[in-house]
Amino acid sequence: xxxxxxxxxxxxxxxxxxxxxxxxxxxxxxxxxxxxxxxxxxxxxxxxxxxxxxxxxxxxxxxxxxxxxxxxxxxxxxxxxxxxxxxxxxxxx
Length: 93
Fold this sequence. Notes:
By secondary structure, the protein is mainly alpha-helical. It has helices at residues 7-20, 50-54; strands spanning 24-25, 64-65.
């Protein structure tokens, strides 16, 4: 018999996999980024690392894993109606 996993279980399995290989678990940042006047909301999981990429911040780790909350809105790639839908069979474990 196969068992369907919840979204929370899939996220935790993802985090656990990378943690097992030495990644630092980083908590999800706020959906509304604080202290950054250039962003209204988090639209991608890399927002919390923006200062690292710009070279204005350094972290005590080089590999990280998280499950970042983000907001998906209509725009250039307007596919909101398709989120969560595909033609592949569901993954059952």
